[in-house]
Amino acid sequence: MKAVILAGGLGTRLQPYTFFIPKPMLPLGNKPLLEHIIEWVTSGNSNSNGKIDHIILCVSYLHRTIEDYFEDGGRFGIKIDYARSDRPLATAGQLKTAEKFLDETFVCLYGDAVYEFDLDEMIHEHKSSKAFISMALLSYKTNLRYGFIDINDGKEGAGEKQQEKQRQRNRVIRWREKPEVRGLINIGCYVMEPEFLKLVPKSSAFGMDDAVRKALEQDRLVKGFKIESGFIDIGDKKSYLEAYKKYVKKLGKI
């Protein structure tokens, strides 16, 4: 199988770290983030799914740094090709640049996270259900920063009860202080059929959310693969430093 890694973002939330280093090349422990991702995606060896040994890197911003480090993938025991764009194209737009390499089921990942879940199982479920797209989804909960106030916003009535209903309108009925919200979040790892790329316009900044909505509108089978752990986001400076400390700790004392 082939895997596409989207590694062309500007990394604006990680500036100034990303002024001279593309976000996927930021170090985690003793190697760049992108190398961790490549090692994870190529580590599976399921006979039913086939081993992923061909990576397509979608690059743009500071792409030479990535290309000079990974070259053709030979020293990592895999094949690496590059799909280049001269400007940021958002997630689905970046993926579109790799279209010429993709003619069968493939994996797509964002190049700004660490993944540690069972990818083989996700691929197996995708193929057995004959899904069009499968999305890895993480159970997530958070507390909102503000309290929510619930009011009675019923419309005014008619007749003799009208005055009482008007008096009750907008009456505060509950105060929920910093309520907890739970749900499933997209972590940027997909198994896809190549026909998905037909939903994405060429040379256009087009988000993955827009493309998946198109698939849903066409009543395509979009499956969720739920995980409880095995994902570290490297979205901003705080999360990057937390991940960096975790990987340095793994190395032990030097």
Describe it for me?
This protein has 254 residues and is α/β, with parallel strands linked by helices. The chain is 26% helix and 29% strand. It is built from 7 helices and 13 strands. It has helices at residues 33-41, 63-70, 90-96, 119-129, 162-168, 208-217, 237-251; strands spanning 2-7, 27-28, 31-32, 54-59, 79-84, 106-110, 113-115, 133-143, 148-152, 171-176, 180-192, 222-227, 231-233. The strands form 4 sheets. Strands 5-4-1-6-11-8-12 form a 7-stranded mixed β-sheet, sandwiched between helices. It has a two-stranded antiparallel ribbon with strand order 2-3. Helix 2 links the parallel strand 4 and strand 5. Helix 3 (90-96) packs across helix 6 (208-217). The protein is globular, with a radius of gyration of 23 Å. The model has no long low-confidence stretch (mean pLDDT 89).
Please give a handful of descriptors for the protein shown:
254 residues; alpha/beta; 7 helices; globular
Order of helices and strands: EEEHEHEHEEHEEHEEHEEH
Rounded radius of gyration (Å) = 23 Å
Mean pLDDT: 89
- Biggest sheet, strands in spatial order? 5-4-1-6-11-8-12
